[in-house]
Amino acid sequence: MTLIIDGHSFHYEMENLCRIFFPYQKINVTPQPVEDRFLVYAGISQSTNGILVTARLKIDSYHSENSDLLPLHAEESEQERRMAILLFRLLVDYCGFTPKWGILTGVRPVKLLRRFVAEMGEEKGMEYFQTQFLVSPEKAKLSLTTMHNEEKLLALSEPDSFSLYISIPFCPTRCSYCSFVSSTVEKTVKLIPEYLSLLCKEVEYTAKTAAELGLRLISVYVGGGTPTTLTAEQLDVLLGTVNRSFDLSYCREFTVEAGRPDTITPEKLTALKKCGVTRISINPQTLNDEVLHKIGRRHSTEQTLSAFALARELDFRNINMDLIAGLPGDSVPSFCNTLDRVINLEPESITVHTLSLKRSSTIFQDESRPFTNDAEATAEMLDYAGEHLFQNGYAPYYLYRQSRMVGNLENTGWAKPGYESPYNVYIMDETHTILACGAGASSKIKDPLSDRLERIFNFKYPYEYINRYEEMIIRKDQVKTIYDKFRRIPE
Questions:
Q1: What range defines the domain where residue 135 resides?
Q2: What global pTM score does this model have?
């Protein structure tokens, strides 16, 4: 596919819109007129009459065009929105299905809705969300419900609050859909002892920085990868370092992603319990063994059920389970069966993800067909999940989207009242500072008195993290520099 961008700089949004309908396509973006059997044109020109916005779609013998004349004083954001609507409608007509999030391609639709509601009130904000961005009534309602459920967690964050994220970038195997920076233990097991040693040093350094800045830790989240790839002894060392280094008296959550059921043992769960972990994830993704095999998960449904039962026996009373809608080889009946069985287990929260087709994942394909069948089936899965989770006492409390998601759909965290994960809300809303440790981790330094936010990136891969550790620690001195800048009183 070739996307011609003519007379404007809105290539990112137009490319993302094309990708909603053709996620497998390689998109060549160019300002130059070219010939291609698969051509999308998005152009803006100006005359004395106004600003002409034009979108065209040409696929072999198929050709369609939309245009709109805007006033000369139309702001760039309005030009971009109107162009997105023109292109969206062309693609809807050609592909024969209408994505439920309309022209929205951003990660945080709930945050956007919150801004509209704050500016216009709830009724007008909701109307604007739907009419100006073509969001369906059901997704607008889901966003509003999520927004209200987030509010009680957002209220817990104070100007001096922060969260801690710790990255364990190792997994037993690499899932075919995965795009995270993680390494299989088979290839990197020799790196783990040195990685863990340096990680504990970074945790201690981060704790010292937080104390010097007078920050209060209110949530801890250990993710990956798969943290329970570590042995029980290694988990005890890492989590013990967190306990010794930080003041946890204000902490409302200590989550560890146990993740893969095939990594869960009584010894590891006992280590987590001993170190004060309050919430874990046991993630089946699906309870269809054929699909598990297809996506490269080495565990079975039986192992998931056994791991969950073991966690309950060891008195874990806040368990999350992740599911993925739209997995290769899964069907609507199979997904619904998985959801029903997971609900029957009565975990405290269930996170329903939509498959995201990242180029770095092994299932990414390059095909010219639109993704309509997969999108419609996945949308049906999410509709079923929403209806049945509501019926069983779960409520949506955070929601986000990723690029290349099947059908431009969403990931939603559902929880029983009182079992929401504060960290998930804070990271998605960008509420407060997240200090992050480990390979691939990104610290987000938030100005407590404005929307300003700056990022500090750790090295991505474990071997880089190890080899360039001292350089990375020096870089993290920026945390204090950034806070000093935020706190400086203007003259």
A1: 109-152
A2: 0.92
